[in-house]
Write a structure and sequence with these properties.
about 20% helix; single chain; 3-stranded antiparallel sheet; alpha+beta; Endonuclease/exonuclease/phosphatase domain-containing protein
Length: about 120
Amino acid sequence: EVEPIQKLWETVALCTRSQDKGVIGLADLNARTGPLQVDFALRTLPRVSSDPEKTPNTRGRAVLDQCDAYGLVILNGTSLETATPGRCTSWQPGGHSVIDYAIVSEDLIPEVQQLHI
């Protein structure tokens, strides 16, 4: 059986093959990326995060690597997020974190007006 995260990235790979279509993804990835952003978007869309854990976990590093490989940008914590950029998406008795993400193709960034979490 294929893991859901593997299926997700296989689907993203198929979708990014088309040069004339972008990718928009909203997903509960259970990944902690801290304030990190893919390298090609660091200058235009740096990120902040209210997640107390600033170091990516294994899943977070994998998300960043896959986003980099497929030309995707994480919108959470960027200037496009209204109200409180970097706002946590998960609240548990033991704490809070950013584990749910809005991710888009780099070429779709000009089309994004705002993100509200």
